[in-house]
Model the fold of this input.
Amino acid sequence: MHEIHVGKDLREHNREIARENREKLKGRGIVALNLMSAPGAGKTSLLVSTIPHLKDKYNLGVIEGDLQTSRDAERIKELGIDVYQIQTGGVCHLDASMVHSAMHELDLAAIDLLFIENVGNLVCPAEFDLGEDGRVMLLSITEGDDKPKKYPLMFAESRLLILNKIDLLNHVDFDISRAKREALDINPRLEILELSCRTGDGIDEWISWIDRFYSESGGA
Amino acid sequence: MHEIHVGKDLREHNREIARENREKLKGRGIVALNLMSAPGAGKTSLLVSTIPHLKDKYNLGVIEGDLQTSRDAERIKELGIDVYQIQTGGVCHLDASMVHSAMHELDLAAIDLLFIENVGNLVCPAEFDLGEDGRVMLLSITEGDDKPKKYPLMFAESRLLILNKIDLLNHVDFDISRAKREALDINPRLEILELSCRTGDGIDEWISWIDRFYSESGGA
Done:
């Protein structure tokens, strides 16, 4: 999205609501991660694989963003997690006020780690601060190793890049070192993990990353 | 994208320019296809695989839409095709005026089949008429069989759905009949092809589809 479509007032309005969200989350000791990627890169599958490793350590909450349907939320709910589904009705990203509304519906007193799964889109979600503590993006290796320079903003704005579906590496043309190099050119501080929900490779490193991020972000 | 972000005037403006584009293309006997998909679903690779089969039959032109970089255009140019690169500078879709400008730069008298490769995004491109004759969308099977109901507009607006990267079918969980059924629920007239640029499966059917579409659309 672009200045022509989203005027300054709307952006400033989003920043204000994001600030409110952030204060409210901080005030309650909640650490929030915003998960972003193109459609089908595996955000929900990652959450489904991650939650069993975390649910004894943290009180988890999930906000699911989708254009339509509550399928992703249903997959999370089956794991016994408090989940709120935002259906954006066609809007291609979450914004701070959508998350603000969702926060009113969740039992925040019972949450200390909140995942916000954004709408599948490599562009617009990166432009909207939700009040989160950090951004994690997934790039499925089936999408190609040329994506960092083609969609730079999301790489620039993320703390962690997860190269996902690494089990398919022998079946696609994806140069991991090229993708990493180009991502680091855009964002030298970006951390990068390789992961496969199918085989479980990289899940332990991802859980360790979450634990470290949680304590660095002032989680209880 | 949504009414809140794109006001009626802007949409109406886009429709007017799209009408102009359509008249200009029709007047010159050019048939135009708008290729849309999520990032990394294989639009450029499809063009690269397609062009050698078409270049003796048609005078081809390509308009490439990307946020940044001209990598896709370079891949097309290597095949000896007239190509124009639109760098949207962050805008997550092509609009009619971008295509209008590109049409000024191409030698339209020397083109009879024009491919417009949209920005990689399953949402916003579907909302912007470019003046094309038809829309073709790609869904890589690595993105998951749940995408039609989650991103319905693009499925509703397309003439043809290409299920791409079909060579990976044994390596991912993708129920082809489910994906087709859900896509047809949204758009009963949607045509569907299965394709792999790696193995060449489905390329012949895709070329036949183009030939038929070209003559049905009044191509010379």
In short: DSSP finds eight helices and seven strands in chain A. Confidence is low (pLDDT under 50) at residues 1-8 of chain A. The longest strand of chain A covers residues 31-37. The longest helix of chain A spans residues 8-27.
